[in-house]
Amino acid sequence: MALEQLSKFENTANNRVIESGVLKGISLEDIKRAGERLILQDGCTNFFQRIVKNENLNANVHVLSYCWCGDLIRSAFSSADLNELNVHANEFTYEGSVSTGEIVKKVESPIDKVEAFRNILKFAMMTRRS
Length: 130
What we know:
It is a single chain. By secondary structure, this protein is α+β, with helices and mostly antiparallel strands. Helix content is 52%, strand content 14%. The chain is built from 5 helices and 4 strands. The strands form 2 sheets. It has a two-stranded parallel ribbon with strand order 1-2. A two-stranded antiparallel sheet has the order 3-4. Helix 2 (28-37) packs across helix 4 (70-78). The radius of gyration is 16 Å and the shape is globular. It starts with a helix and ends with a helix.
């Protein structure tokens, strides 16, 4: 019940942002530049680099986020040379390279996050069997 209430809250908040038009007209390049300037939590970059760069691990790293824009997350990690991460987040829609202000809601709520996590696990199990 609590997850459903939080999901409804997140959906309402995202719809308000879309309706406000505040995200409309942002260029993809501006989003990427903002991502490159994001300061990650202490130890975050090192943690992921140690996993991804370790040849003894066959790690397939996934990042799940409620963030409005997966491009922002990908840019933040790529600036730390972490291009191998699989990002699961909401995405902006673009006309050319300019945001329309709409959000493709892929991971909007805690329930969506759980579902994405289950799909990641299911895919991992299927690929291990192959």
